[in-house]
Design a protein that fits this description.
single chain, alpha/beta, abc type-2 transporter like fold, 6-stranded mixed β-sheet, 15 helices, 8% strand
Amino acid sequence: MKILKLAFFEIKKIIRNPTTIILMIALPIIIAYLGSAFYPQNLMGDYKIGIYNEDKSFLGTFGFMFLKQFFRWDNAFEIFNEKELIETVEKGEFDSILIIPKGFMSDLVDYKETKLNLIPNPDKLQDSMAIYTIVDVLFRELAGVPEIGAGSTTQFLLGGGISVDPNRKMPSIELLVPDVKSKDGLRAVDNKSLGFKDIFAPSIVVVMILLFSMIGVGNSIASTKESGLLDIYRSNGLKLYQFISFKFIAFFLLGVFSSFIIWYVYRFLGVQSYASDFELSLIMILIVFVFTSLGIFLSSITKTTKATSLLLTSVLGAMVLFGDIIIPIPNESLVKNISNFMPIKYSVEMWRKMSITGFSVSEMKFEVAVLLSFGISFIVLSLFFTYISEKK
C-alpha cells in the first residue's frame, strides 16, 4: 500500500507539469505517424540512377544490355552523350551516375586493369553511397566472366559447371565529384575503397556531440534551476546571460574535445577522409556550437529536470530517426521535408561532403549559413525564454 501511495504521488508530480503531459501525448502520436509514412512501397525504385555507356564496341554494347537488367528500377535512366551527362550533373536531379568508360568490357575479358566512374550527388551522399555499394558488389561478381571448361558433360558438371576465374581482377570504382572549377565540371577523388563505415562515421560523431553537448548542457541547466542553485547565483549578483555563458562554454569545450577524440579514433581504425584537418576542425566547432545552443534553448522552455530530460531525449531520438543521417529517407516520403528543418541533417551532410568528396568550407556556404542561423536563433530564444521564466 505504501508503495502504491508513493507511486501515485510520483505520478501527480509528473502530470502537474503541463509540458510533460503534452510531450507524453503528442510525441508518441507524431512518431507513430511519421514512422508509418516513412517509406513508400517501392523503396529501390526511388533511387534515381543515370547510366552512361562510353564503351560503344560490340562487346561493350552487349555488356551494357546485360548490366541494364540489374538497374530496372522506376527512376533508372540512360544518358546518351557527354553533353547530356554535364546537363544532368548541373541540374542535380540524380542520386548517382554510373559511367562505363571506353574499352571497359574488352579490358575486363583480357585480364587488364579496369575502372568504372561513379558520380555521387553531393546533396544525397547517403543514397549515393548505398548505390556505390550495390555497384561494387555487382562488379565484384561481374569480374568473374563465366568460364566453361572442356570435356564431357559429366566432367563439366562434376567440375562445378560454369565457374568464376579468380585471376580476373574486379574493376576499381573511381568517384567523380561535381566541381565548378573543372573544365568538364567534374574532378576525380582518389579513393581506395569506400564502405559504409566511411559514410556512417560522421553520423556517429555528430550523435556523440548531441549526447555530450546538447543533452549535457540541457540537463545541467535544468538541475541547477530545480535545485535552487540558480537562485543562489542570482542573489550573489550573477546575471542570467553570465549563467548561460559559463554553462555554454563548459559544454561547448566538452563537445569539441569529445568530437576530436571520436573522429580521430575512427580515422585510426581505418575510416577514410579527404577533408582538410583544419577546415574539418572549423566544421566540428560550428556543429558543437549549434547543438550546445539547442540544449540551452530546450532547457529554457521546460520547468523541471524530468520534463527537460524527456524533451532532450525525444528531440535526440527524432533527429536520429528522421534526420536522414542513418537510414536513407526516400524523396517521396513526408519525412524528407521534415528532415530539412533539423540541424543534424546539415551537420552530417557537411561532414560527409568534406570527408568523402573533399569539399572545402567555401563550397558549402549554404550549409554553413543554415547552421549559423540555427545556432544564433537558439541562443537568442534561450535568453528570451529564460528571462520570461525568471520574471514569473
